[in-house]
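thread from #wetlab-drylab

HS: before we spend reagent money on co-crystallization trials with 4'-deoxy-4'-aminopyridoxal-5'-phosphate, can we at least see a predicted complex? here's what I'd submit
DV: go for it
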Amino acid sequence: LVARMRPFGTTIFAEMSALAVRTGSVNLGQGFPDTDGPAVMLDAAAAAIHGGRNQYPPGPGVPELRTAISAHQKAFWGLDYDPDGEILVTAGATEAIAASILALCEPGDEVVCFEPYYDSYAASIALAGAVRRPVTLRAHDGRYTFDPAELRAAFGPRTRLVLLNSPHNPTGKVFSADELAQVAALCAEFDAYAVTDEVYEHLVFSDAAAPHVPLASLPGMRDRTVQISSAGKTFSCTGWKIGWACGPRPLVSAVTRVKQFLTYVNAGPLQPAVAVALDSPPSYYEQFRDDLQRKRDRLCQGLTEAGFAVLRPEGTYFVTADITPLGGTDGVEFCLALPERCGVVAVPTQVFYDDVTAGRRLVRFAFCKRDEVLDEAVARLRRL
Ligand code: PMP
Ligand code: GLN
């Protein structure tokens, strides 16, 4: 194995899901729903498979999906992207992120990101031979914030891009207009690109301080931003791995150049089905959000009753909690012991930080599960 990949073992998600299977635990570790997405989408996929759409689709993605992504970006975020040349379909958001970094970073270039960061970020940055410059999110009064001076200090002459995930996994933070403006101003000052991971764009809860705002919609940012999302979260089909990248023609063309040699194309018959899902009425998106908000409330209450210090998320389908009130001092030890102690799997957020002290006592639970599963997990955790 090449040196730059040696620090990376098995992903924490695979590791914790395997632990859940091995111990028969309730799995609130890896973030995937346990119910299917819209029936019209599933039917459309079956129809596409039986309708002969089983060969290589066009490189940028099937036209009806690119058209549907374009309409979605316009309807929800007021952003205009031409389906021909400004939208690329990828193998999930994961490939879009990797291809963007590989397309834009020379070896030695720096990537500013917020930690805790989604685990593929560090690996994709390393694959490109680039260097990550994390800015730490810290919990204060129940909210995760960063120090603006630390953000500024992370930028420098080698900064090539900022990789921003909002709504943010694992904290559930939704970046405010002011925070986004700080990021945008630094991108302009240092002439950096932005790559935005917005896979939880439709999961900002009604009591959040701010709605979701794509960084690309800030003045001057559209021209320097690759905006990424995926069907996996919004349509509960994480196994389909259909994602996309939108941006100005030169950036999407660069990302496409790389993507074509990573996977060439992906999942032909699933693409028209995602197009159908994206055309869902507004009520679909509202109900999806409201359902997850109820689940958030259900799990947050249960975790609080079980003794955790809960950091209530404003978005995503994850909640982080501090284990200190339960006598825990190290999230990794806590999560490895949890299946034995009570038959529940969670993820230690420490593994998403370079500064491990910042996340040492935090663990993450996923609440994208049926109510009875959440209730069973809480009943078990209350035995701690
Ligand atoms: N980014 C974040 C923040 C995520 O939580 C996930 C989780 N699945 C992904 C990217 C990957 O998305 P996909 O499955 O579409 O590759
Ligand atoms: N995004 C999901 C999570 O954060 C899992 C994705 C994965 O397993 N790679 O749990």
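DV: DSSP finds 14 helices and 15 strands in the chain.
HS: ok that's useful, forwarding to the group
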